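The protein record passed on below.

***
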Amino acid sequence: MKICCYILLICWLLAVSSYAQNNGYSYEYYTVDRGLSQSSVNCIYQDKKGFLWIGTQDGLNMFDGYSFTVYQHNPLDTNTISANWVYSIDEDDNGIIWVGTQNGLNAFNPKTNQFKHYSTSKKANVNEEIFAVLVGSDGFIWFKTSQTLYKLDPTTNKIDKFDLPQDFFINNKSDKGFPILEDDEGIWLGAANGLFYFIKKLEVFKPYKHIEEDPNSLSNNFITGLCFDDNGNLWIGTQNGLNKLDKKKNRFVRYFSDEKNPKQGPSSNNISSVCKSSNNILWIGTFGGGLSAYDFTTKQFYHYKHEDGNNNSLAYDYVLSLYEDRSLNLWIGLDANGLNKIDLKPQKFKTYISSKGKDGLHFSSDNIASVYLENDSTLWIGTWENGLNIFNRNANTIKIITTETTPAIIGNNVHSIYADSHGLIWIGTKSGISIYDKKTKKFIDLDNYFNIELNVKLKGVRIYNITEDYKGNIWIATRNGLHRFNFDSKTVNTFTSNLNDSLSLYNNTVVCVACDRSGFVWIGTQTGLNRYDYNTNKCFRIGYNKSKKPIPGTTRTYYVPSNPYIYHIIEDMFDENIIWVGTGSGLDKFNKRANTFEYYTIDDGLPNGTIYELIQDKNGNLWMSTNRGLAFFDVSKKYFTAFDPEDGIQGLEFNNGASFIASNGEIFFGGINGLTSFNPNNQRNNPFIPNVVFTYFEKSNSKGKRTHQNLYDENTVVFSYDDHSITFWFAALEFTNPKKNSFKYWIEGLMNDWVYIGNKNFIDIGILPPGEYILHIKGSNNNGVWNEQEANIKIIVKPPLYKTIWAFIIYALILGGIIFLYVRSRTKKLQEANEALRQKQLISLEIARQKEELSVKNKNITDSINYAKRIQEALLPSEYLFRKLLPDSFILYKPRDIVSGDFYWITEKESKIFVAAVDCTGHGVPGAFMSIIGYDLLKNITREQNVEDPAEILNLLNLGVADTFSKQSTDYEIKDGMDVSLVVIDRVNKQLHYAGAFNPMYLIRNKELIEIKGNRFAIGKIEGNENKRFDVHTLEYENNDMIYLFSDGYADQIGGPFQKKFKFRRFQHLLVSVHNLPLAKQKDFLNETFETWKGQMEQVDDILIIGIRM
């Protein structure tokens, strides 16, 4: 795999070696508006991880492709950068970022997010400007001030000082810093008074100066840029010219700007930066002349400058810094205009647009209406409103032909250009047709060329499309119908729409026409698709009188087009049974034998539904222009790839009629901003694999506080159980087009497979249950080349103390103790009360003392019951479990007392979900006690006894409760029991199995409520129930059915204007009225209705309602 990547990379470099000389680069701008701290960029550097560091005149920036992290000086924090004016950046082997600033040297540790300051002066608070920083191959940190070179040993912090030769008449400073460069034997230094080479072994400087009378010396002493080429030559930028040092001959070759011969020198002599690119190009930044590129192969210079009104040119001509990243992107730091980026890799698309430069293209308009490639070099381009452009791509010349030129054409809106088999080029305009005869090289109007009086319908009418059939006849699509021109008879036959004739055109506005290999002519109009048959001389209406519904048994096959507006039609070159149709709603695949359409829409990956033009390449795949860019459709794999202006196309909006495919496979699409061309066979994907890193995470705690924490080499993060809204951010550090880098993730411990999230560089985890997890991330570049070496981070979520194993053991002991204390206390109070009644002689003081004692004990019991409430809540199924099993559900649970006699229960076995709503007789502690027994019995019956039938579950629950409360004495029986609604949801067979003790289940379907009643006896050892058995009800459910399980508390609540019960009939109407609402809103509405009805009355019973949408 690595060998393949290396081979691919070499092919890239070979392809880009001459790219600078003929490419109009696409520029991307980064300014303060996009997060850059300041708009004057002094220096740029990419660290080993792939982050980009940008030094400005007001802060240090770290860029991950999505956002800038800004580091600025804080006088109250000694761990911040010492100054905001940054001159130079480098990195050592430990990942420490070394920064030269206006106030000393800084070492930034990304792991601690702190800066360490180094001073060159023994005096406190005195630092010099550090104009250059270099991490040497020897591990030492070399840095330069105005007059001195320093060597820092980072292990001992020892600093050695080497004074430069001084020139007291020169201010040896620079607003952007000076260049520094290392070779095998020493260090090259730029200064205001010359170039200096520091020989490490001898610890001496060798100076290079400008000598006025020596043409082999430096052209200027103010050094602004240094770099080596592949031959070991040193290139030096100065404030007056570019220089190359031939070290073998020890002489300088000078390059100066030359307006008469611009390819012989840089665009300006004021050089600000130089950068040797991997594609054998030397990039030269100038101060005032923009950007120049020296091609080592052709030995020529090419220039790139700012053009007013052109958003695809250099933003400003004053360049401060240059840097090439590891993906062959050139970063251009400007003075007061931010950061520009150009992609040096060969682009998939080439776009022809007008340029205001004297050497640029000057089309009559960039709004392209039609296109035709006559030969390899001659391109015919029709425009809206501005005539015809004949563009010679080799000579870079354009000939413009309009109604006013000589020669002239009939109209300036050129909507169709077609070359027929007779040696003629047909030019269809908004005003008619002009003919160009290749033999005579003359333009003549159609009727004059054939010297006949043609049908008036071809004069002064808009021509949409022109094509030729197998007989040599020319078909002309117009606003006034379809016209066929017969070369032999020189006659025109017209086909129009007739409301009374179903074998006529759908509409007189014919947008496109195409001829297939079977001899049929396909006609696209504004209201439908026709097929013309020579045998019948009729236009058959495709899909006539058919409904726009899927054909039975299919999901995406229809008898009619996806939209009646037909923009373009082509026949499949590899399957003559298939016609591809571009409509106003997407791409249609028409099967001629079956007369059926298969739709492809935005939902399938199209960037837009309007398909203006269709072209099939030589591989059988489709390319199409839309209102939102270009789209590629892989016919065999049936997937779309979208392209937008960031990929190099002319813009988002293209034009109908503006497309062409040449014999060599080159494809052209025209839009409102120019003409885009490409050859699918020559397109290469970006081979650079991005390094994937976590950048930071955010979370909120129970108090609502939002926390942001950077992640740099972190391998573990710890969260509390009450942390929520957890979001992780990450980056694929490949900067070609970061917005199109893709990601997928997997949370080990929570998920079983990878989840693709597209271009989104974050995941919102929300809330994680307590436990340990590992978050895995993979990323790709903009062309889908994935880095299989994933980034991962361990996540630990600590549980609350009350949910540990020991906590539950304590809960059980406390619950038993509470029940024991309650029973004993209650018995004692009754005994004392009876004794008090029998002994009326007790003095009032004793009575008061007993009351006080009773009050204290009641408080203790209440406190214990409150604790029991927490225990009961802990036993109930968690909201996380309920949501996991039934995502579209709600629970309205409102106990009357501190603890409740109602409870809900849920479990899952294989594909079945068991849900129960239980109403235990009684309230408070007795009811809670019963609920604990019921909960435990249900769990035992389903898990230990493996019972799945709901009726049998209730039968066993009945026996369990009766057995729990059985006594040896037959003269006392427990009268309490449980009312139960139990449903088993079979998701495989889409069935509901229901059994109930008193309580029914409601099912609402299509606004109709169906009541499934339970048996009219309760759970428990109640006289007369011993031999009764529960019944099961089975019914099919449909999607969006609502089922409700509930206790009788809601219906029994007393309230309203007359203080009466709410009753079940009113409850049923309420459920029908809200069942279509989202589940959360249903719950809120039911709760609000209950509180409104209850008003100031006390709650009479526990409330439990479970709603589930199927």
